[in-house]
Structures are given as structure tokens and as C-alpha cells.
Amino acid sequence: MTGSQFPREELFAPGHRGCAGCGAAIVARLALKAAGKNTIVANATGCLEVMTTPYPETAWRVPWVHVAFENAAAVASGIEGAVAALKRKKGKYGEEKVNVIAFGGDGGTADIGFQALSGAMERGHDMVYIMYDNEAYMNTGVQRSGSTPFMASTTTSPAGSHIRGENRPKKDMPMIMAAHGIPYVATASISYPEDFMKKVKKACEVNGPAFIQVLQPCTTGWGYPAENTIEMGRLAVETGVWPLFEIENGEFKLNYRPLKRKPIEEYLKVQKRYRHLKPEDISVIQKTIDMKCDEYGL
Ligand SMILES: Cc1ncc(C[n+]2csc(CCOP(=O)(O)OP(=O)(O)O)c2C)c(N)n1
Ligand code: SF4
């Protein structure tokens, strides 16, 4: 299925309260386009939830549940169980598949919601978990999360003359999820919409749990002009910071290989969260990216 074959119908309305250029809105819009209207969403507290549902308005044109910061996966697994039970009762649901999708930010997924996520994946619920990864707790003022990259400055890992920003590497969520033995794990980017939508569609079709981590540039937290959101996502992939891959039934497949990887500096120098970096810091980051890319055959 190519991009032009995806439905034109918009299940995520414009007019939400996200910052201009917000990548989270693009995640939701593309994901719903791919999943279609037979979808129920559980959305963890965070920017995506706050900006899309200022009472009494909503940007969601599918059934949507706001859940606590920490339990999107638990609520989604309950919805999946309820749908299965109602399907068994004649007349409640037809034969059509109902997609259950949980959306959580990186804080809501890699940190506080991790236990609920791990449990839902391990129990084998037929659901899709989409981690929209803007690499910090954006809704509450750009605090670091387990998914914040090495040396990025946030309000709780502030760069100064001694501290070089975040001092730990980014948590490797796709590999942690793959270690649960679930049938489908993928990385994606809003800047490669066709790839992302195909992955969402596949994740919905899989029988069992599926996990997609989509990198979501955030104009406010990363510090770049709003009109550059798509370009930021492209640079992440073109420099090898964010490889696009799938792990399907344990089999790893790289989805995109740049003709020539761009130097990491091109990605770092256009973001305020990295403006403190010195040439020696950039070479350290470049080395870690090179090692990761070697591992992935990129
Ligand atoms: C138990 C609990 N602790 C803290 C909060 C406050 N809180 C709301 S949203 C949020 C940050 C969410 O970060 P993330 O999941 O990365 O999503 P983003 O805002 O970046 O989209 C925090 C700390 C909360 N709602 N509940
Ligand atoms: S802070 Fe970032 S994630 Fe939150 S609404 Fe603004 S651009 Fe979107």
C-alpha cells in the first residue's frame, strides 16, 4: 500500500492546542489514518492528551479514553479484553477487527508506564502501543526521561560548565520490547509517513501485542524553528541517530539505509538542547552513533 492509497478521511481534527510545528499531532494524525475508524484509543497524560482535549473540545474522531500518566497499556489491555468479551456476545460487535491503540509519551512509556506496558506485552494482548518519543517530559516543562539522549540539555539535566547535559545513554526501548517475545516491534519517524503508516497498519493486523516507537521532534523542547519539524526528523534518520527497522517474530529488518550517512553535527547544531556541545563532545556522540549503526548494518 502506498501513501496515496491511505484514506483521505481525517480522524484527527486540526485546530488542537499543540505548539506550531508539534510532531505529536503528526503522530496521531498519521496513526489514525493508517488504523482507520474501527479504533479505540487510550491516551496517557502528556502533551498529546492535553493539547487535543481542552474541555469540552476534542480533536479525536474515534472513541478516546484519557488515562493516567502511568497506565495507558493497562487500560488498553482492559479495553481489548472488553471488546473480545462483547464480540462473544452476539450482536455487540460484528466480525470487523477493532484496533485498540495506546499512545504514551516517552516519560509515560519508558519510565512511569513501563510496568503496565511490560505486563500488557507479556500477557499477549491484541493491542498496539505507540510510544511518541519527544525525548523528555515536555508537558511539564522539558524534564529528562529515560529516553533523553546522551548530552541533551533539559531542565533536570541542564548543561553548564561541568555538566554536559544528560549523562546517561537513551534507553533502548525497541530491544527491551523485543525481549518480551512479542510478534511486532518497529521504530518509525513522522518524517517518513508512508513507512510509519505501513507499520501502524501492520501492527493493527498482527494477532497479539505490537509496539512502535516513533521519534517525534518537539519544537519547544528541542529548540528549533517550528517550520523545521519534518527536517529534524529526516536529519535524525539520515545521520543514523534514529534507524528505521522492524523486528517481526524475532527477525530484524532494516527499512531504510541512507546513501551516505550525514555527520551527526548536522543534526546537533540546529537544536538548542545541544548548543553547549564542544567539538570533542560531538566526536564522542559520533562514535557512539557509528557503533550503533555498525550493529544495525547501517
Ligand atoms: C503520577 C503522575 N506523576 C506526574 C504527573 C505530571 N505529569 C503530567 S504529564 C507529565 C509529563 C509527560 O511526559 P511524557 O510522557 O514524555 O509526554 P509529553 O508531555 O512529552 O508528551 C507529567 C510529569 C502526573 N500526571 N501523574
Ligand atoms: S511542547 Fe513539544 S510535544 Fe508538547 S505540544 Fe509543544 S511541540 Fe508538541
From TrEMBL:
CDD domains: TPP_PFOR_porB_like (cd03376). It is an enzyme of class 1 (oxidoreductase). InterPro entries: PorB-like (IPR051479), THDP-binding (IPR029061), TPP_enzyme_TPP-bd (IPR011766). It comes from the Archaea. Residues 45-214 form the Thiamine pyrophosphate enzyme TPP-binding domain. Pfam families: TPP_enzyme_C. GO terms for molecular function: pyruvate synthase activity; thiamine pyrophosphate binding. Its EC number is 1.2.7.1. Keywords: Oxidoreductase, Pyruvate. Heterotetramer of one alpha, one beta, one delta and one gamma chain. This is Pyruvate ferredoxin oxidoreductase beta subunit. It comes from Methanococcus maripaludis (Methanococcus deltae).
